Structure to design on (1020 residues):
């Protein structure tokens, strides 16, 4: 072994290559300082105080007889031995590596870099980055609803209840929420399932929404945003190995939370494609063929639907939902209905139908049997309060024993954030008539290309979109997803920029 | 097959047993209504409109040739066929079933029932339930810190910035937090890792706490309470199957979040026992023997320490921590230091030493190598703000690729609750001198028995504790865990009651 070869293994500062090939180096063997023979090198002394690391992995080097773990040791800048980590990309949980989340992926990371570059004075063909990659209404300048924020301020600092500056209805709402909190403080843990009176309000809201279909507050679970509820439900569902591994059907395109959660749980992602030619509608024949194919290699147990769609923005017809429910009943699939955009329907002639309502209209053969979990959030709708991480899920026809397990599972995380629960209450128990409210719009456009297109668009215009590949799309088709939350003025500029870019792009690359 | 045998399978209302053995029943075959022959029963007609459920499971009955899935169908009260669920205790994720969480287990559930019974006028030998099962300071009447709540109210409803009722320092703090929020609103999503300026404040806090040991804000992740961070770290660590399955060393007694999370992740829980005879201290020899034993059947990769201890309340000496770090280095274990009670140390002569500080004092061989994640929370300390679900974790010496995976993983849940982030900022960037603050005390007592004892105590006195078995204890020893957050007056009553009960109990059962 030459000195330079040793130098690669043993960083220079701690290695003295002596005449005759003697090498002294620091490292290894805290408990048993000793000399080890490295082939071609006579001896090494390992002073114990500098060497916390014991013999371990012997398999990594071609050196025949050597200090175990030697190749794992590297010299850091300040001349100290550094060793391979316990937790590395090779030893970490492989399911986490499979997780992808396009909404905050490389395009968004580059956008943040560009923002930094702009702040540092780097010249760009634009002066600001416009983020249309995520449905974050307030970040785009939407103002919060006054009533909601008044109640939240009162809950945070109840001394304000003594002030005259707040309307009585806001005070009453705050008093009611505080009374339901342990010690009258939003700083106390709530019940793990959520504050009782909030769950009752959610149940009444659901009943109103669904024309009187009953809702039991015991079936309502408050969550840390809808994501939390969705992941919790998937966690209950997923089991088995190999061909009996749980499969979960998700739309393509989908919101990437689903693919990310399924990857993390090691479940089989079963894709069904939305029909772009028919405004991204769901085809039963596609569901059937997707399921038949999936059954060859896994055990499909659940069907996820995002309605109104994300990123596609389609609103399912009542007839379509009925078909999906019949399909789930026939094929024995647990239904998961992501309905967080239920209040974001604006197109003329379009109407939101909840899966639960349609389920009950199909009669007791369905309403007594089909298992359904439905999800909602404070982050979307007209309030767009993303930062509070409020949400709920309702479970219908869940097996009682499973529901007990669900209740146990959510208790491990103690409770969802209480301010988010309070906000959920305000959303479902909406402010007095006359209170201002804004409907925000959330819809995705189905247009042309992908990562390259989006990166180029970002670099040239500062507009940050998400490539369609992060949501899934048919081979050979390309999309991007943009949220259209910026204020009208900004939106006009944004759209003009996109238009111009798009024309140039298609000219250049077609 | 006799009619009664059929009756067991086919609920009575829908079954007409005709002379000669004809049975007509409803159920099955939505897509292909057809007659099926049941052995000993001539024929069945399945009207399609009443039967959404197709042939499926054939294996559950002794009937030789029969409608597939028949045994899964039951009659509900309103005369409709109900079918076995898709998601049952047998088909659900088995790892979830293994989760146990004593802090909110059967004792607490019974306590909630008893509270309801009291409200309904049921006579008990007590008039209220005192909950000493969970560290929920505000629920026990502790008042929130005014300064914190003023800032939170200002953040929730920034119009209050124009009022004269708030001190300038509170306003300045709120302005700073709001400026760091998208669109100046706590209703916007933050960066997934947490708001930049909050992470910077956390980093400076850690540096002050640790006497100048540097902290990089990029290594700080804001979390939804400490639980979130702990589960996320465990998620990164766990992999492998059988004998190479990841093992995680946890203290016994432990805080049940650990056992629950490990069960859910399917990791191997490797117990090491705290030494009750030495005030629940950690013995290195116990660590060594526990690890040696574990290596026979799994791959131990991480060592979790709760310091100050929960439920045991011990505070580790500097010497002990040094030993643990040397042990982790020698044995190549990833260290997880749960330090949420770091500000709850009150015994004379006791001092909190952070694992990070001791790690750095051991010199670069350790500080450049040993991987450590440390956790903190807004729920404990003097503020006890549990409901906001604020917290952070700091990772040290984490492999860069793994840290990129961590950043990706946390992005899937978008962000921790922003009000909790704001609160974390206030905690680490504490109020101006002169601001009121209270130190709450959180310590567990190590005394006598278990579930029976606790249930009896609850039934007779209304005091709700947690049996030691939920945290783990040596065979043949019994403990309970109580939090001592009630105000002094109530605490005196509580302790007097416990004393009286205990004397009676030991008299009766010894």
């Amino acid at each position: 072994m030459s000195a330079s070869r040793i130098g690669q293994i043993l960083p220079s500062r701690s290695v003295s290559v002596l005449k005759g090939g003697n090498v002294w180096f620091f490292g290894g063997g805290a408990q048993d300082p000793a000399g080890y023979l490295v082939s071609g090198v006579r001896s090494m002394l390992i002073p114990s105080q500098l060497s916390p690391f014991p013999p371990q992995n012997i398999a990594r080097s071609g050196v025949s007889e050597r200090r175990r773990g030697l190749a794992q040791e590297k010299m850091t800048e300040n001349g100290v031995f550094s060793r391979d980590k316990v937790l590395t990309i090779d030893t970490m949980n492989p399911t986490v590596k499979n997780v992808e989340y396009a909404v905050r992926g490389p395009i968004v990371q580059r956008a943040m870099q560009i923002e930094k570059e702009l702040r540092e004075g780097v010249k760009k063909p634009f002066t600001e980055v416009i983020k249309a990659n995520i449905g974050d209404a307030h970040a785009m300048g939407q103002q919060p609803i006054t009533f909601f924020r008044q109640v939240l301020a009162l809950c945070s600092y109840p001394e304000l209840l003594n002030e005259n500056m707040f309307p009585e209805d806001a005070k009453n709402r705050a008093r009611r929420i505080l009374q339901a909190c342990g010690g009258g403080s939003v700083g106390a843990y709530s019940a793990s399932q959520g504050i009782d009176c909030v769950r009752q309000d959610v149940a009444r809201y659901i009943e109103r929404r669904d024309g009187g279909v009953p809702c039991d507050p015991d079936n309502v679970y408050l969550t840390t945003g809808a994501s939390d509820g969705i992941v919790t439900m998937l966690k209950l569902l997923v089991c088995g190995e190999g061909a009996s591994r749980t499969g979960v059907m998700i739309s393509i395109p989908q919101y990437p939370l689903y693919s990310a959660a399924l990857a993390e749980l090691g479940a089989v992602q079963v894709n069904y494609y939305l029909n772009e030619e028919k405004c991204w509608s769901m085809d039963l024949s596609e569901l059937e063929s997707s399921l038949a194919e999936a059954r060859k290699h896994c055990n499909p147990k659940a069907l996820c639907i995002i309605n109104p769609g994300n990123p596609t923005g389609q609103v399912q017809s009542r007839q379509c939902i009925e078909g999906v429910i019949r399909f789930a009943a026939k094929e024995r699939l647990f239904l998961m209905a992501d309905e967080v955009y239920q209040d974001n329907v604006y197109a003329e002639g379009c109407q939101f139908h909840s899966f639960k309502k349609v389920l009950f209209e199909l009669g007791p053969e369905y309403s007594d049997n089909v298992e359904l979990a439905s999800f909602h959030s404070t982050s979307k709708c007209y309030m767009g309060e993303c930062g509070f991480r409020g949400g709920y899920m309702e479970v219908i026809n869940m097996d009682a024993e499973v529901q007990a397990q669900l209740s146990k599972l959510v208790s491990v995380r103690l409770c969802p954030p209480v301010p988010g629960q309070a906000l959920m209450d305000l959303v479902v128990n909406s402010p007095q008539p006359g209170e201002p409210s804004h409907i925000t719009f959330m819809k995705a456009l189905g247009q042309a290309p992908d990562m390259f297109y989006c990166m180029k668009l970002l670099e040239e215009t500062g507009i940050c979109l998400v490539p369609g590949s992060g949501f899934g799309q048919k081979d050979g088709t390309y999309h991007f997803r943009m949220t259209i939350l910026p204020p009208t003025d900004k939106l006009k500029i944004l759209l003009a920029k996109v238009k111009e870019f798009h024309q140039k792009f298609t000219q250049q690359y077609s």
In short: The radius of gyration of chain A is 29 Å. Residues 3-83 of chain A form one domain.
